[in-house]
Amino acid sequence: MNQSSDDFEAIIRQCLAGQQAGYAMLYESCAPTIYRLCYGVLMNRQDAEDVMQEAFVYAFKNLRRYDAARASFKTWLYTIALSRCRNLYRRGNRWNLMALLSFDLPGPASEAPESRYDYADAKAAIENALSSLSPRLREAVVLRYGHGLTFREMAEVMDCPQKTAESRVRLAHDQLRGLLRTSADNLIESLLGNEL
Amino acid sequence: MSWITCNHYQKLLVAFINHELPPTSRRRVASHLDTCPRCYRAYVEQQHLTRELKHVMPLVGQGTPPPFAHVWAAAHTDAKSVRRTNYTLRYSVVMLAVMLVLLIPFALDRHSYTLASAPTQPSPLLHRSTPQFTPSQAASVSVVFQLNETPPPPLQSTFTPVLPDAVTTP
Asked: Is the ipTM of this complex over 0.90?
């Protein structure tokens, strides 16, 4: 979603004129970002795909309602996607089921622990830590660090005051710090255990 | 007091690291960090976490979203289904049908049903048949009634029935 607001306005005009190519362009430019947002919030690939599709269907149908004077197209789309995510975890509390089904399987013994701690491991550690956060805090972290939104934009998307957005990020920081410190301690313990 | 101050400054650390504090607050936090080793350690940890999150978070959820054709087809299906399911119209038709069914018995034999009307007072026939008296006449009539009235038989303690002659013994 690197286009400027003028680019988006041109594409939206094309869509409103009834050209399918406009919709396709809009989708191609926004879908990866929205998918990343949905995945970051829901932590489930299938749910993320469903919610993303639902959000785009809603956006396409209500494109006439979009008002560029009120918010940027990115913020509008983020708001739609986030509200769909919230609907999903309000409808069925899948988190408990996910927690029950997620097993911490040990890695293959042949790999050296040092080599395992690369980006993929960091990503996995952060994903695990994220899934243990509450949905509101996870939203805040995803919007702030995954999408680089300012606190004001976050407040618009999350439909809360700016101070609340700030405090959610701070709370998420505190919890993540504790969770990641524990996982780092566990890693050090496992390293020491392997050496002994 | 110092604990409260440290707690207050630690709450501002995230905004401080993200350069989102006003200059005066920023200066105050910086000067506190210079003097407080505990808060400085928290600052270093927060900074490390922020850096890690900024590096790793964009990688979370990297993948290929479903192709446009899927979404386009879903949008079309959704539009059709909305057109098909006009709930207001459906419910109005059902309600109308129910009301018609309920009204059929009334329409078929409405003559057998008489609606309840307010009761009317019966005409005072007796009053009309009785002659009208003047107050003096009424007094005389009442006297006449008193005179003509047969007094009730006196109560007797020993009652002996009077038998007719035919029944008397010979």
From this structure: no
